[in-house]
Specification:
The chain has nine helices and no strands. By secondary structure, the chain is an all-alpha fold. The chain folds into two domains: about 60 residues, Homeodomain-like (Arc Repressor Mutant, subunit A); about 110 residues, no CATH class.
Length: about 200
């Protein structure tokens, strides 16, 4: 049975507030007292919806776990558009990096619940790249997908240090080189790559 609308609204309000504060100020820096005070509720009310801070952290990360939207665009265009999207995100004043990496960095690799969610998110993104590469007929789609996610994470790290959205453009250029080397036509509509046959030695 679904919770009453008022309870669901309060739960979402708590999550929205936790999301904003955890992401912008850090998970360790923000206690449940701060979140409750920001909303104007008691800690008891907050705990009625989330029995512990750990449960709230997990819900915050799961809320950030958004799947890529389906697209009718050619696969190569979808892949490269990822970096355009990153550049726009980098330019936003509230950008503080990847929430999943931030959570693991703050809470440590021994926090298995957080690490599990972070790994699932990162692997989901990698699989998305792999599926697009498979559509393009790339021979070693798995390896190239890993390289592409490394470019994404590298661009995020560089932007945080340099505060320069152009890092996303540099990563896009590198991704374009990787795609071309894999036999993908990245000019105009992407065409399936020709499977390369190994030459007998």
């Amino acid at each position: 049975m679904a919770p009453p609308p008022k309870q669901q609204m309060m739960k979402e309000r708590i999550l929205e507030t936790a999301d904003k504060l955890f992401y912008l100020q850090g998970i360790r820096a923000i206690g449940v007292d701060t979140i409750a005070a920001e909303i104007g509720i008691s800690k008891r009310t907050l705990y009625n919806h989330f029995p512990s801070k750990d449960a709230l952290i997990a819900a915050y990360l799961e809320r950030r776990f958004v799947a890529q939207r389906p697209s009718d665009k050619p696969p190569a265009e979808q892949i490269l558009a990822t970096f355009d999207s990153l550049e726009r995100r980098f330019a936003a004043k509230d950008f503080r990096g990847c929430p999943f990496v931030n959570a693991v960095a703050e809470l440590g690799p021994t926090d298995r619940a957080v690490k599990k969610i972070a790994i699932a998110f990162k692997e989901g993104r990698r699989i998305w790249f792999r599926e697009r590469l498979t559509e393009l007929g790339v021979a070693d789609a798995d390896a190239l997908a890993t390289q592409l996610v490394l470019l994404v994470d590298g661009a995020i790290a560089q932007d945080l240090v340099r505060d320069d959205p152009a890092m996303a453009r540099a990563a896009k250029e590198a991704a374009t080189v990787l795609l071309r080397n894999a036999g993908v036509d990245v000019g105009g509509d992407a065409k399936p790559a020709k499977q390369r046959k190994s030459t007998p030695q």
